Amino acid sequence: MGPLDVWDFSSPLLLLWMNRFYIYLGCALGVTLWICVQVVIKKQVIRSQEKSVPGAPDSSFSLQKKQTHVSGVKIFYGSQTGTAKGFAVTLAKAVTSLDLPVAIINLKDYDPDDNLIGEITSKNVCAFLVATYTDGHPTESAEWFCKWLEEAANDFRFGKTYLKGLRYAVFGLGDSAYQSHFNKVSTNVDKWLWMLGAQRVLTRGEGDRNAVQSKHGSIEADFTTWKTKFISRLQTLQSGEKKACSGDCKKGKCETTQPDSGEMGPHLQGKLHPRDVEEEEPCESSSEEELGTQDYQSLNSLVDVEDLGNIMSPMKKEKREKAQQEEKAGVNRNPEKSADSEGRAMITPALREALTKQGYQLIGSHSGVKLCRWTKSMLRGRGGCYKHTFYGIESHRCMEATPSLACANKCVFCWRHHTNPVGTEWRWKVDQPELILKEAIENHQNMIKQFKGVPGLKAERFEEGMEVKHCALSLVGEPIMYPEINRLLKLLHQHGISSFLVTNAQFPEEIRNLRPVTQLYVSVDASTKDSLKKIDRPLFKDFWQRFLDSLKALAAKQQRTVYRLTLVKCWNVEELQAYAELVSLGNPDFIEVKGVTYCGESAASSLTMANVPWHEEVVRFVQELVDLLPDYEIACEHEHSNCLLIGHKKFKISGEWWTWIDYSRFQELVLQYEESGGSKTFSASDYMARTPQWALFGARERGFDPKDTRYQRKNKAKDISGC
Questions:
Q1: Beta carbons of 478 and 406 less than 8 angstroms apart
Q2: What CA–CA distance (Å, rounded) separates 395 from 465?
């Protein structure tokens, strides 16, 4: 019997041992299969988590990812007057409500070369609030930042991706009255950031200080609207969404999702690249209603030149269709053309509220009247204004008014703080002069009545004050802009009211066409083109030529003419020779030289008390100016108003000055002029009157009428206030 005969192959244990290789293989396959099943299950769990929390690949990190889409907000501002800074503070408070850290940064203290690139990795959203100042230039605080940004955007070494990943939004502060550079700075900042690859998260906002043209009625309302959209956009970014909403969603369904390739059409697939299409540049469109631009930018391909027509045609067609729809619906985006045949009112509700708070009595749709402080002073026997000293006006019978609240300048020393509208031409409804004069007198009388019972009020002057004898058309704005100014002047004279008309020397043709005025003023706030531009901040591009032409037109007038010089210390007091040349151009009868009046802090002017000259400084300036004018001498002085009068020597007869006005004689002469149809003319020498001794320069009274009692304010060593 052989060895194998002792084995029993029918035994199960023996069979397992003999087939152990197959058993091991089966176990290995089973384990492998189990592992694969577990992996698949795990992936399904991860995918379900990603669907429930957008952008989170793992549930353990989902909360962290959600919180770091926006790490904070940095608000940069460039401000000249403080408005942008105030908006920055307001925006910061709104951002804080989202539990986001926020920082407010003055661009003057920010070095973009060192810090701007760091805003990308920090995942901050940057908001830029920038104002446009004179001639479209940035404010002083933002000057360096804008210069650096412009150079970087145009320097090939930086490239188009230098700021890629930086998220930003821009809000501009400007004035549409300066049409040629309205919000130019914010437009440029938006453009330069885009050129460097930064991502714009919200349409550029445009604040308009011109309440008449502002989309929402005021620059504050413009900012509030933009701020609301910015906060909403931040909330969207916090949730992880990357696409900005256009704001044109209908029935709750957002229509700003990226169009797929099927919707684009074969001619656009694989060709569109956002930064190679000039029309797609976001800085070129600030309209909040514009669609399509960001959709094209979301694609990562190039556009062939021959396909540009295919791209632009649908966009143009869409704009035409939208314009037609708006036209049918009665929508007109040009407010100047949308007015009815009579034009729109100059005084908007916001403007009415602002001016009423300042004490204006508004008349019709574009006029106003206000009680001068010198009228109040003379009613109480405390002295009259410098016009009383220089020309014999009875200040308590003088009405200060204007038929046009609008002006063509935005002077740094504007005593109305630029609450009035601005413009270069009349584009408003025209009220009739009869209405203006009637309501002006009524309102003036009502304000006089309210003065009854005030301590020190002189009864006889109160009665006299109820009858207006003089009208100073110098309250605010540019009276000569009013289309019916000649009719208004004629009505004043028919009522026995003398006329003192002030113009800012920007309307030479209107000066030439002006009927006789008791006294016509031209404001000569500077003697050179650069200083006039800096001080008056005119709206006209050809402001200097208009200024010179206005002075020439003044020289042709036969009635009394006056240059009015306002001295602003450190700004226009060093230009004596240039002033002398301007005097020879207009040959005025008189030159009033007055130190600027500081009217308090203004959001539109950098003027401070340091710019107000002392009376002694004004006297010194006048003396030096007269030395350059052989035909003129110093005639009168009104120390209390910080003002002096230079008179032409033709008004000094036999050693005596005749600067005062014979108002009764003027009314006779102007009546003869009107009755003769303008053929019977008259000149300034025909209605002059002798100046009293107390009003002359060098007199002991220093221009204060001895009939009145001078009132000195307490704690005032020198009072340089004036009207």
A1: yes
A2: 9
